[in-house]
Amino acid sequence: MRLPKNFLPISYDIKLIPIIEEDNFTTIGYIEILVDCLETTSNISMNSADITINQPSILVTIIFLINIGQRNKSVRNFSVQVTNLFSQDTVEVVGLILEPDRQIVTIQLATQIFSGQQYKISMNFVAVLNNELRGFYRSTYEEEGVTKYLAVTQFSAPDARRSFPCFDEPNMKAEFTITIGRKKTMSSNSNMPRIKTEPMQDMEDYVWDFYQTTVKMSSYLVGMMVSEFAGTPSESELNRVPFTIWTRPSLTKLTKYAGNIGPQIMKYLEYYTQIDYPLPKVDMAAIPDFAAGAMENWGHINFKEADLLIDEQRSSEVAKQRVAEVTGHELAHFWFGNLVTHDFWNLVWLKEGFSRYFQYIGADSVEPGFKMDEQFGVATLQSVFRVDSLESSRPLDFGVNNSASLNSLFDVVVYDKGASIVRMMANFLGHESFRRSMTRYLHSRAYGNAVQDDLWQAIQEQADIDGLTLPATVKAIMDPWTIKMGYPLITVTRNYGGSVGGKITQGRFLLRKSANSTEDTTVYRWFVPLTFTNDFTLPHRSIWISVTEDSMSVANLFAADDQWVVFNVGQVGYYRVSYDDTNYGLILKQLSEDYTAIPPKNRAQLLDDTLTIARANIVSYETAMDLTKYLALERDYAPWTAAANALDFIDIMLYGFADFNEWKDYMSGLVIPLYQYVGFDEGAQDTHLFVYTRTHAIHWACFKLDNADCVQHADDVYSSWMSSIITENDISPNLLRLISCTAIANGGDPEWTFGYQKYLASTLANEKLELLKAMTCAKDPDIIYHMLELMIDDTSGIRLQDANTLFSSIASNPIGHGVALDFLITRWDEVNSYFSGYVGFGGGSSMPGLFRSLCDRVNTNEQLTKLIKLRDDHFDVLGSSKSVKQGVELAQSNVLWVEQHYSEVITWLKKQKITSSSAVVNPNYLAMTVLALIGGARSTFFRI
Questions:
Q1: Which of 13, 216, 480, 543 can bridge 32 by disulfide, Cβ–Cβ 3.0-4.6 Å?
Q2: Is 333 a known ligand-binding residue?
Q3: How are cofactors bound according to the entry's free-text note (predicted)?
């Protein structure tokens, strides 16, 4: 898939006319590319996909004989002068070789062209204005009953080649001069400000919009839009450069939040990096049909509507945080990705990992009440742990040799593992030293490309200046984290009987080790920055275990025999921890007596680590389940999120078996005290994370445990809504999905149909998504099957970009899972045909994603057999997918878990005798019990 390195583009002059008409969705184009010839050749290879090139129009013109590196004039002005002088010095074109599979076209020349010379390549072409959400594509929306169209770009990764022929690799940076033809009734946008507009001579209803030339950048960052959108300028006083939010005209009232936080986050990132944003404006556009959450085109960011637009009255706290995070992520790309770009796609983590990390920092800079750092561990680090503990995981630095491997790059590993190791690095370097090293790195590679060693070098230089003491060079420390898949399990075995030392070992953590494991051929060791404490009110201790050490002795753990030790303070390290039985016992004792002595982030870590390690047979399920008993007292967001994720796995594994009620009884003893504490209805003083915690409690109490009080609350509200006693404006947006989900799950066709109608009627993107997810809670197989048919019906009102969400949500429904699996088996051809044009973010078929969503709930050999047969029957589509391999591995480990642990867990559950009258009670928590009763007494059904 790689281009030969015999040319390097200097500048592009591109003219495009998107024809946005129902009988002619095409783009008419003309391009001139100024290139340096680096090697003597008679062929010019470029990227092109789904473009018809007019071969007779191709011209290759000699510009000037020059020694590369000695050009000392403006490239654009100089090329204009020389083109006029040598306008007749063209090289004859004798052929055009098309390689659609490689997305490469090769211009064959009659004679050689020579290294050290510049050439201008020009041609006419026609591209498809497709509906595949990639390249230069079309999107639609309804405005006052009329279907409206717009043309918009999504070029990552890499799809600029679908809009115009180009050298479409990230390390082939150039300047771009864009000219867009449009109807007079529409407007256009691009990366830079518009210079002027002129009539189009041969198309009466069209005009040309001329844009300023961009800075030097990669082709995937070119952004364009032609629409009837309205632009709303930000009213923020922090605008050093103009911010404008572009939407369909009816949605301009939803732009205020994004317009307010965008300039604030920009200012913070300029402060953090000590580098000013170099472009003269920022556009943020809300696109009705968009594959990714957003795309960081320099100067013109495109967003999915749900990730940019907020209704201050009707958008949930989840939606509001999502907008803050995505805005922070995309603005961070202006430095990490745009200013300094990965050399090739195998290193895409250099932009996505850093931007994921900075989305937390950016969101925190404008919304400190969100407590983003507390959320990082449970939302990002623990999320990627679940994938990176599989043998089918991959390293961050992952070879890309074909389009299939490129398509698999944009996954949880590149985003969340990348962010997690950046966070770990920032903590062991110290945040100020890390910040200065980022400035050094960005300055050193500005407007260029970077490989990992460029990053390590900049950090090393700053570490040396700051006098940091590290166990090895930054490169030696960090390379194992990026070139090896997986992560370490740190096992802490303490000495007792008066000794305060112990032994620490490291080894790769795997959920399940197969017979042909790479463990036998690869040494999985890391430089691990270990932190530990036995008193969180005091500074923690830090030591390193080396990449050369399987184990090490520690002379002083600062803990007596009756004191616990907890490693990985704040869970900032990218590793799990296992302890000896005595230390686990001390931790359990502390949690039962006063769990607040261990901060929320580490309580979350203990729950996630221990319950996951038990799946791998490293600690007993008796130890892991004993740890969960204190949850009857737990009230904080992070521990409950970690617990909900880990216990959801057991819920899935036990579902459908004879003793499932034993599990429901136990979980009721943990969840109902939390539900009573947070209450069903909102209070005026609820904090952001308190609202989040309520969602955990209601989801479990209503949907999983069928708690009568919870279900009745939800049904009453939904019934009032159906009867028009209230409207959706009277229901808290934070509870809308939970209420609708519960009522639809416990109702029938009327409840589902009402939800569907409300989904179709809603004009608020994030509300529509909540209602769509709620619809999938149905427990009637016929209704579920009907939804799956709607998914592949382009008249259903369910957008193609949301069809994946619909399917995956049904697949996570205990009843829906089997229906979805059978539907994909029996209706494969129809589903595959419907999704064939939609490739999703990063390219590639959507079918592997649908398959992957079926894997988590597999817990029987019968289900596993059907799943594997589905893969084998469609191996041409599914066989090479990394996500499919990971899904099958997870499904196999699930079935193995049932064989190994089902009886063990059920036996433990039967011993607990937890009922509503004998739940865990501790005299230290009388006040907490009173608060729980107060919380349960909240009486208003609707928003306060």
A1: 13
A2: yes
A3: Binds 1 zinc ion per subunit.
Contact of 856 with 822, CB cutoff 8 Å: no
Tokens of 328: 């922070």
Q: Which of 356, 394, 355 is nearest to 375 (CA)?
A: 356
Residue 402 confidence (pLDDT): 66
Would the pTM count as exceeding 0.85?
A: yes
d(CA 729, CA 360): 30
Instruction: Give the bridge partners for 268, in sequence order.
Output: none
Token reading at 598: 């261990």
- In this prediction, residue 408 has a pLDDT band, given cuts at 50, 70 and 90, of low
**Nearest-10 crossing angle of helices 781-791, 800-812:** 160
Q: Are strands 448-450 and 340-342 parallel, antiparallel or unpaired?
A: parallel
Tell me which residues are annotated as active site.
Answer: 330
φ, ψ of residue 2 to 5 degrees: the values are -85, 145
Band (pLDDT 50/70/90 cuts) for residue 879 is: confident
| pLDDT band with cut points at 50, 70 and 90 for residue 410 | confident
The CB density around residue 218, as the number of other CB atoms within 10 Å, is 25
- Going through 439-597 in order, the beta strands assigned E by DSSP cover 448-450, 488-494, 502-508, 528-533, 541-545, 551-554, 566-567, 576-579
Cβ contact 817:823 at 8 Å: no
Q: Which residues of 494-532 are buried (b: 16+ CB within 10 A; e: fewer)?
A: bbeeeebebebbbebbbbbeeeeeeeeeeebbbbbbbbb
Tell me the C-alpha distance between 34 and 20, whole Å: 30
> Is 443 marked as a binding-site residue?
no
Return the residue matching tokens 């026609």. 126
Strand 41-47 versus strand 104-113 pairing type:
antiparallel
